[in-house]
Amino acid sequence: MFAIVRTGGKQYRVAAGDSIAVEKIAGAAGDSIALDDILLAGEGDELKPVKGLTVSAEIIAQAKTEKVIVFKKRRRHNYRRKNGHRQQLTILKILGVGTEKVKAAPKKAEAPKEEAPKAEAPKAEAKAAAPKGEKKAEAPKVEKAAAPKKAEAPKKEAKPAAEKKAAAPKAEKAGKAPAKKAAAKPAAKK
What we know:
The chain has a domain at 2-101. A four-stranded antiparallel β-sheet has the order 2-1-5-6, with no helix packed on it. A four-stranded antiparallel β-sheet has the order 3-10-7-4, with no helix packed on it. The radius of gyration is 41 Å and the shape is elongated. It is α+β, with helices and mostly antiparallel strands. It is built from three helices and ten strands; from the N terminus they run E-E-E-E-E-E-E-E-E-E-H-H-H. The longest helix has 20 residues, at 110-129.
């Protein structure tokens, strides 16, 4: 039996066992979903009514398409823009076409996940067995010596602003004309 389903604004012809790549659908790998938007269904040359019909699918992976380069240019205006785009998609495996929802087969990868918590359990028991007042026997910590700091350049002592003003009061400046330096120019030869 086949069906034409609509998802992500596109239409796909599917049958049980097919794999299709569709626009991104929320969900993780291994999740089962039902595609309810059925446009047409049939078997061989016969068409069947689509009312109440669903397509069961399993998400195989979330992936991206190949990169598409978007290059914009305006002549004689020094305008060039280059962008890339990778469309996100979901790879689906069609489990069945019909009224009943077919459940996905259990994955082999789930078994190791169950064993991992068991490995963590002995560690938790060891922590609980140790009294809270006693510290664990740990390897002695080695303290690293700090690297020697670079010698800083000596800084000149800055005079406070009040002393600078006191050294040259305005009253003294008004009484004396500033002394001009004599120009040390060689005499021109005639």
